[in-house]
Design a protein that fits this description.
4 strands, globular, Muramoyl-pentapeptide Carboxypeptidase, domain 2, 5 helices, alpha+beta
């Protein structure tokens, strides 16, 4: 009797579970978003994580710079196998051109130095003020501060200057 009851209950749960899963699987219409939409979402998500990290650091008495140091020491700007100026330029180009309104221009380049400029498409997030309690200035201090730390580790000096809507950057190999 106990065995028949267990078998019956198992069969009922399986029937209900299978029908429930099947019904749930047919209710949502999945769409294949255009690559531009995926890039916009992925870029936004990354920037929001930066803001969230800064906000968390501030909530425990640290600064945006402290967060930049933490991130800069955990990440790399290039593959460990390719740490030349060109690899850093390619990474920066990819970073800023994944924004739908991102623009990047390589101005000069040699084996030891490169100069470039790009726009600041992420400023749109801050048009209405702070994002999770984070200012545009704090966001940029982390964005560029951790880049400076990562490039220093591979013997490249990263200098940047923000003028209006444009960032001018110089990379110099020092070792």
């Amino acid at each position: 009797m106990k065995k028949n009851c267990c078998i019956t209950m198992t069969a009922v749960f399986l029937f209900i579970g299978t029908n429930g899963i099947h019904a749930q699987g047919t209710q949502t219409q999945l769409t294949n978003l255009p690559i531009e939409s995926k890039l916009d979402w992925a870029t936004w998500r990354t920037d929001i994580y930066i803001c969230t990290g800064i906000a968390f650091a501030k909530s425990i008495g640290m600064t945006a710079y402290d967060f930049a140091v933490f991130v800069g020491n955990k990440h790399s700007i290039t593959s460990p196998d390719d740490t030349n100026i060109s690899a850093v330029v390619k990474t920066l180009n990819m970073l800023f051109t994944t924004y739908s309104k991102g623009k990047f221009e390589l101005l000069t380049e040699s084996n030891l130095m490169a100069t470039m400029k790009w726009n600041r498409p992420y400023t749109a997030y801050f048009e209405n003020g702070l994002v999770y309690g984070v200012s545009l200035e704090e966001f940029e201090s982390v964005l560029y501060g951790h880049a400076k730390i990562m490039t220093k580790r591979i013997g490249i000096d990263f200098k940047y200057d923000i003028k209006g809507d444009t960032v001018f950057c110089t990379l110099n190999r020092y070792r």
